[in-house]
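Lecture 7 notes: from sequence to structure.
We start with the chain below.
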Amino acid sequence: MNTFQQFLTRHAIMLPVSFGSWLYFLLGAGMGFVPATGLLIAIYLAGDFGIRQVQVGSTVKRLGMTRSEYKHIVHQLGQAKTKLRQLNTHYGSIRSVQAFRQLNDLNKLSKRIIGIVQQNPKKFYNVEKFFYAHLDSAVELSSKYALLANQPTKDEEMKTALEDTRETLMDLNVEIRKDVKRALATDLESLRFELDYAEVLTGKEKKQLEMQERKQLEQPGQAPVKGEDTDDRKQTP
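Predicted structure tokens for the same chain:
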């Protein structure tokens, strides 16, 4: 699902078409500047919408999905990117090195999952918990930690809450790492299958080579060619 490439394709098509139409309306048809420009905008928007629908139809057909499924996943990806930006706003508020590392790990892992689903939208169903729960928890916990950490005075209760939040962030980090593994599960299975298949082929090749060598060893010695010297020479009288 390369949305940027699709975006470039749409505009690469519609820019020359709409601009050429504008020149025709303005110069060839003698239309005024304002109505010609209005038609240019209308043609551009209509063409962009039409090409986008064709691209979506081609994508969902290739993926074997419905349009509603595809749109839902695109919507979830957009929301996830917004939440990730919210997560990144807490970097400057966290002073603990440990918490900073946890937040950085959460950010990298989340980007990884979003990137995987963008490349293959079907992977969304492997990591639904990430989109529906884990990323929300990461944003909420990091916001809570940043709020507590920036309080000027900290009593024992607040220190305990900070420690609990830090431990929960650590647990959440583990869960999101599992989400990454789930997202890559089918790829890893395919890789294992290919490796196993390669090993089987290698084993067959070795067996074939061994059989050929065995046949060569078992072949009887060739008879000497006529005219060659032999040990059983005839004695001359």
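Points to note: Residues 221-237 have pLDDT under 50 and may be disordered. Residues 66-212 form one domain.
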